[in-house]
Design brief:
383 residues, alpha+beta, D-amino Acid Aminotransferase, Chain A, domain 1, five-stranded antiparallel β-sheet, 13 strands, RimK-rel_E_lig_ATP-grasp, Alpha-L-glutamate ligase-related protein ATP-grasp domain-containing protein
């Protein structure tokens, strides 16, 4: 039997007018405020925070117009109510489109060789999986053998967690002149479980113009429609700041929308600011076109066809010195805000289709809320 406090929480949840609860809306906005928005003296989010989207309301969701207020200023000045909130995206859209219970397994970077054995990727020197060492072809090896594989390289190396390394978290560059037995063993001891070491990729001369110290990548969002068609939602090039080797904007770099012909939008966008300097102002040149862009798009569509459990994927793609696409990683919970900053309301003309699917969520209230989606995903939330 529930005590009074638990019953009160349960009653309030059941009586929510909208599918997304007040708590979820608060958590979504908190993520937006801390991760994306400028300071309040630059952008006063209170102006439209208590105005709500009529578009999302028809599907049973309450979405503050603060999202439209901010994203329309960043992208196209089109203030409309189709900009999605973070809580609707993370709590409802992602588990509706992607099998939530499979996500962690598929996003393990040490499993990419088995998922995409024939796809060009950075060269792996060794892997640590569940605390044990493996060769690049997944054969068990000793610690000493793993050390030797790293020592044999003549290039700079990248060490990264194979699980949960989003936004460059705990990704480290190791210069070739620093690599010796003691250094490699120290790295093994620091990272302990679930990581790999790979050779640093030599990138396209064109992308190197954006910032020569970082591996500059394309973040491409693809969606599989209910009709089984694979479509592009938005494509963005990301680059790091001077001296940084990560491509995320938090290192002083930025990002630009990529058009269908591979050309970049003139504006350089960044988190936590409304400033949008031009390419000329920020980087010193007026235009840039991604080479081999049609090949890149074919590449990501071919990759997505291999993932039947996931309808929405964010791909991180680099270009090598020959301008050939190289798979870096995939993101099965790729940021909605990043996409909307760089391309307008997420899903574009497919938004109606997506929201029809999402609105069919079934909530089962007991001691917690279990949300069940048509694709088999289940998400547990505390009441």
């Amino acid at each position: 039997m529930l005590d009074w406090c638990s019953w009160h929480k349960l009653k309030n949840s059941v009586m929510e007018k909208f599918i997304n609860t007040k708590k979820e809306q608060f958590l979504g906005f908190d993520f937006l405020k801390n991760h994306t928005l400028p300071s309040r003296d630059v952008f006063d989010y209170r102006v439209h925070k208590k105005e709500y989207s009529e578009y999302f309301a028809q599907y049973g969701f309450q979405v503050s117009m603060v999202y439209a207020d901010f994203y329309s200023r960043m992208w196209c000045s089109d203030y409309n109510d189709r900009y999605m909130s973070d809580d609707v995206y993370y709590y409802y859209v992602i588990p509706c489109l992607n099998r939530f219970d499979f996500i962690n397994s598929y996003m393990d970077k040490n499993g990419y060789d088995r998922l995409f054995p024939d796809i060009k990727k950075p060269s792996i020197l060794m892997k640590n999986i569940n605390g044990r060492f493996f060769s690049p072809d997944d054969m068990p090896i000793s610690t000493e053998e793993a050390v030797k594989l790293v020592l044999a390289t003549d290039l700079d190396c990248i060490i990264k967690p194979s699980i949960d390394s989003g936004s460059g978290k705990n990704v480290k560059l190791v210069r070739k002149e620093e690599i010796d037995t003691a250094k490699v063993k120290d790295l093994f001891e620091t990272y302990k479980w679930d990581f790999n070491i790979q050779k640093r990729l030599e990138q396209s001369a064109t992308l190197k113009k954006l910032n020569e110290s970082s591996l500059n990548t394309l973040r491409i969002y693809t969606y599989r429609t209910l009709a089984g068609e694979y479509v592009l939602l938005v494509s963005v090039v990301r680059f790091g700041g001077k001296g940084a080797f990560n491509d995320n904007a938090s290192t002083g770099g930025g990002f630009c929308h990529v058009y269908d012909d591979g050309s970049l939008d003139q504006r350089v966008l960044r988190y936590h600011t409304l400033d949008k300097p031009t390419l000329k102002e920020f980087l010193g040149f007026e235009s840039l076109t991604i080479p081999n862009y049609d090949r890149v798009m074919k590449f990501v569509f071919d990759l997505h066809r291999r993932l039947p459990y996931f309808d929405l994927v964010g791909w991180d793609i680099a270009l090598d010195v020959n301008n050939e696409p190289v798979f870096i990683e995939m993101n099965l919970t790729a940021e909605s805000g990043f996409a909307q900053m760089n391309g307008g309301p997420l899903f574009g003309k497919y938004l109606d289709e997506v929201m029809e699917r999402v609105s069919k969520v079934h909530k089962d209230y007991r001691n917690s809320v279990e949300m069940k989606f048509e694709n088999g995903s289940r998400l547990m939330m505390k009441v």
